[in-house]
Design goal:
Elements (H helix, E strand, L loop, with lengths): L3 E6 L2 E11 L3 H19 L8 E5 L5 E9 L10 E6 L2 E9 L5 H14 L2 E3 L2 E6 L13 E11 L2
Antiparallel strand pairs: 1-6, 2-4, 2-5, 3-4, 3-8, 6-9, 7-9, 8-9
Length: about 160
Amino acid sequence: MVECAIVPQPEVPTIGIRSTVPLNRMKEFFGESYGRLYGEIGREGVAVSGMPFGRYRGMPTDIVDVEAGVPIAEPTEGHDDIVAGTLPATEAVEAVHVGPYDTLEQTYNEMVEWMSEHNLVPADDMWEFYLTDPADQPDPRKWETKVVWPVMSVTV
């Protein structure tokens, strides 16, 4: 079972690319988006403040409303489809998933169970920080992903 905890999240400035993507095209979307984002970061001299993330608005189905993003030190302006934004300050349940991305559903299911046991209501969006760069660690069994799932309220 994955270890869950409620952790206050600070507001974090970001740049990202948001799109509606078929579930079976997520790998390509993230690869292309991070390539463009890090290219933009290099051209503009933007300071990165954390690991890249994927933000999901609503539980993914066959079509996913997703943002590939990068936390940055200071707010900046986006252009074209690269948008400036923030990850909001909020209370959230965190868990660290270890393993390939295609097994993340198990971690989400365990988080839902944990939230239910603790009378917490999950928000509609959540994000994942990709703590391991697959280029540096080719073994997907060792990849770490921090899942952050805001909670709206305590159920009565």
